[in-house]
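To illustrate the input format used throughout this study, we show a single complete record. The first block contains the structure-token representation of the backbone; no residue identities are included at this stage. The design step must infer an amino acid for every position from geometry alone.
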């Protein structure tokens, strides 16, 4: 059991903030005449403001993820909770965050936008947490520690024991990004929410669920942190369209599981083919829906693929990823096109 005093970590101005109260906050429930929100009364299916608390959607996600609705915050993609968490906890030009690199770029971009210093520490050469480096990096102004597992762009899971160790020793809030959770076995870190008040888990509908276009990020934490995010979010941050599409698609968990099985199968096949391509020096093991691939000359390979209409992600400028491309696992046909093109280069 790890209890961190969350309110003592929150920025002073946020702690005393009185949140905006929207029309749909002040009256909830069925009525026959709504004249409270300056909407157009003519039914277009979308003339009414959406539910600012996404009650139905959270109920469904709570069932799926085996958590309580009070432990869920929904954002316009994962990028919104990343930004809101930084703004809730970090005092500009004073506080800092620790980020093991290489990882997803938005943590440090969001920190920089908010004038929060980033203490970057390297992952180990096999892209796992370097405990000493992380514990050396944080100081009394470190509010947040970001980790991504499976990690982007390396594709591997971080050591669960090291994450657990940091959950015990870190005095701030840990944001664990599990965007690729559906591609691993097991429940990830959601089961630890009840015992670790300083844990925030991010997941998304953008990857396995096939809903990148609706922008729906899921943030799980203890009810205190969730309430805090709710007080500072834009009132109607999840559109009515996104809420209804998400609700409909979440009914079809079997479809998602089928896609995941197929993508993992294709990942293995793609891995096997890539390792036999002469320019490929190494394919890193992946627990996600992409492969990090070291080639002889990433920059040239990237551009050669572009001229053949195939776009991958050049990660060669990223630390520890020299000459690496990040390649999403596509359909069988798309992967074959990629491998054929690489063979012809
Ligand atoms: C793709 C990805 C996300 C998803 O972001 P959304 O804004 O929810 O689409 C989050 N974190 C990581 C590490 C990712 O790779």
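Output of the design step:
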């Amino acid at each position: 059991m790890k209890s961190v005093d969350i309110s003592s970590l929150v920025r002073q101005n946020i702690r005393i903030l009185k949140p905006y109260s929207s029309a749909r906050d002040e009256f909830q429930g069925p009525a026959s005449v709504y004249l409270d929100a300056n909407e157009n009364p003519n039914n277009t299916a979308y003339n009414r403001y959406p539910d600012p608390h996404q009650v139905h959607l959270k109920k469904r996600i709570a069932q799926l993820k085996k958590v309580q609705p009070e432990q869920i915050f929904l954002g316009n993609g994962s990028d919104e909770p990343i930004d809101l968490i930084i703004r809730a906890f970090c005092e500009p030009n004073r506080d800092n965050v620790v980020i093991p690199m290489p990882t997803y770029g938005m943590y440090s971009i969001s920190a920089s936008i908010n004038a929060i210093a980033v203490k970057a520490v390297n992952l180990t050469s096999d892209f796992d947490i370097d405990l000493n480096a992380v514990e050396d990096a944080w100081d009394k102004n470190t509010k947040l520690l970001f980790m991504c597992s499976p990690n982007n762009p390396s594709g591997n899971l971080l050591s669960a024991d090291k994450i657990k160790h940091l959950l015990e020793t870190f005095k701030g809030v840990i944001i664990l990004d599990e965007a690729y959770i559906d591609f691993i076995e097991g429940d990830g870190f959601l089961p630890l929410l009840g015992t670790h008040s300083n844990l925030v888990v991010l997941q998304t509908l953008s990857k396995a669920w096939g809903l990148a276009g609706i922008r729906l990020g899921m943030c799980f934490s203890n009810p205190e942190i969730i309430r805090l995010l709710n007080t500072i979010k834009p009132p109607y941050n999840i559109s009515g369209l996104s809420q209804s599409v998400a609700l409909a698609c979440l009914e079809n968990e079997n479809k998602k599981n089928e896609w995941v099985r197929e993508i993992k199968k294709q990942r293995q096949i793609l891995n096997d083919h890539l390792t036999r391509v002469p320019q490929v020096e190494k394919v890193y093991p992946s627990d996600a829906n992409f492969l990090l691939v070291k080639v002889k000359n990433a920059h040239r390979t990237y551009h050669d693929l572009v001229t053949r209409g195939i776009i991958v992600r050049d990660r060669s400028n990223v630390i520890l990823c020299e000459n690496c491309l990040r390649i999403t696992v596509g359909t069988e046909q798309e992967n074959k096109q990629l491998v054929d093109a690489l063979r012809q280069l």
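Structural context for interpreting the output: DSSP finds twelve helices and eleven strands in the chain. Residues 6-251 form a domain with the Aspartate Aminotransferase; domain 2 fold (CATH 3.40.640.10).
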